[in-house]
User: What shape does this take?
Amino acid sequence: MKIRSSLFAVMLCALPCIQSIAAPVNDEDRISVDIRRTTFLVNDIDTSLQLYRDALGLNVIYDQMINSPMENGEIRKRRLVLMQANDTFIGALGLLQYIYPEKPQRQEKFDEPVPGDPIMVMNVSDLDTRWKSVEQSPKVAVIEAPHHVEYPRADGGKIAVMVSMIRDPDGYWIEVNQLLDAPAKASD
Assistant: This one.
C-alpha cells in the first residue's frame, strides 16, 4: 500500500468552516518540528479497526507486517496500520500490534484519565448517526454518551460541542465530539 505523508492530530474536520484552520502553517511561521502521527500499541489490530476504520471511518493507508532480527536470533514480528482522516497534512493514527514477542497489557485501570494517559479528541460531523456504531464496537467502553457542553471564549461567548468519551479496546481514552459552533482560536 502507498504511504501518504501526513502530520499528526487525529482531528476529523467537522464543519466546512474549520477546513481552512487545518491548512499548513505559512512558510514564514513554520518551526523546525512536525508532529507526524500518534501510534497506539494494541493487543488486536483487527478489533481496533472495527472502531477506528469501520465505526469512525478513518481510511487505512498502510497495513504491513514488520519483521526485524532480535539479539537472540529470533525474529520480532509486528503489524503496523496507519489511518488518516480528511487530509494528508493532519489526522494520522497508527495502530501497532506486537505479534512476537507479545507485549503485556497494562494492568492499572482508572475511572478517569490520570497523568500518563493520552486523550485523543476526534471531531465528527455526524455524531448522531455514527454514535450507535461507536458504542457497539467490540470491547469499547462508553464513559459518557454524547451530551451538550459549552466552552468559554475569551470574548465572553461560548463554543457549543456535543461531547462523548469512550475507552477503546486497549483502554485509550477517546473523545468523539461534534462541534456545533466555530472552533476555538488563539484569542479564545
